[in-house]
Amino acid sequence: MLKRKRSKKQFKEDFKRGLGHSYLELKESENREKYKDIVLWSCLRNTCYDMQCEGGRGIFLYHAICLFEDKSFFEEAIIQKFMQKNLDTWLFDQLCELLCLFSEDGSTRARESLYQKYNTMLGLRSYRLNQINKNNLECLCVRLTSLDGFPAFKNIVKHLGEYTLRKSDSAGMEWFYSDAKNKFGHKRVDSYLQNNAINSEYVKAFLKSVSEIVIPNKHSMDPPTLEELIKAAKEKRSRGLSLRFAKEASEDDLLKLAKYAIEESNLEVKLELLWTFRKVRFPLGESYIFELAESNNQSIRDVAFEMMKHLPPDRFHDFAINLLLQKKELANALSLLCYCYKPEDEAVLLEGIQRLTVSYEVGGWHGVFMDVEHLLDDRSIHMDPSVFMFIYSQTLCSYCRHTLIYRMSKRKVLPQAILEECVHDSYEDTRNFAIRQLRKKSNSLSISDFKRAGV
Q1: Is the pTM of this model over 0.85?
Q2: pLDDT above 50: residue 325
């Protein structure tokens, strides 16, 4: 693999994205200490774009920490951060995972900190747990059962049951309960709870709290009528209803909704009414959609571009190209272009995505990158891999990076060097995929060979 020499700023950008070559650069560096502050910075922040999809960066960060001689430098800073109150749940979970990894490597200090935090959160007698602390406590309980197994589960159940009785307030541990069944088996978990609920008020209280599952009203899941949708739109609560309406609505109801939306003067209500037509074709002609795309209201323009994607591609191709040439509506125009892409559009597409602002605060790039990735699914389209390599290096979402790598591999346009560095990617599925592909290419290597090589 070719070595990449980058500035500290470039390294930080790559490392916060969880790119495998940033780990390799750190590992091969002759002056690793200069990156120490960047690794710590990443440990004390949630650098995921969407941790719910990405699954966290704990293992990636811990592997980086282990490259330094003094791991205690990181451990102490992580503990100090972990002990703060009301941390964002995703960051809290990352800190939990890191401290569990330290504990698994024999750190008494890390283990004591985890249980100290656990005892503190359950021992708050002056007030009930707020929602943030409930979420954080549940994260911590899940991590502790991963660390200490079924004995930890049994102790936590009793403690949570005691909390429920003491506060007359459920700690809300449905995820913890579900995770335990996945870890230890449904039969083992439920048998323990049911058998011990007979003699333990605490276990009984916990079992009751996770058994009280609210069954949705079947009627509430039925498609709304046109009148119900319009009423909800006026109350600014129709987004979810509009998706169900789009699936089941008759052509006559869609036509009536379209007419109602055209006549509506309140832009917020108009937006709600138009939301349905993100999923089904607008029935009143194309000219109105293009008029909406010129609105002074950004949200209205956004929904108009979504509506346009239901038109035949030749109806909006030139419109998208002209916007890009004029440097207008960059994200919307790029997404639209992916729905009407022609081979001669490659240069315009690459130039456009290179101009996008990629940040945690501005999300337009995320949808564009996903739309460009989908072009790989069309075997009739042949594009220079540089378009996809740009997305690989720039996306903040490691989950999307995984889907991109998978598609590039399937189309046989994934460079070998990229596959090799993906073995060290922050996203577990990417690491596993890279290992499988490399093993296929080298049948003589076993999984133990990868482990000995530090993979």
Answers
A1: yes
A2: yes
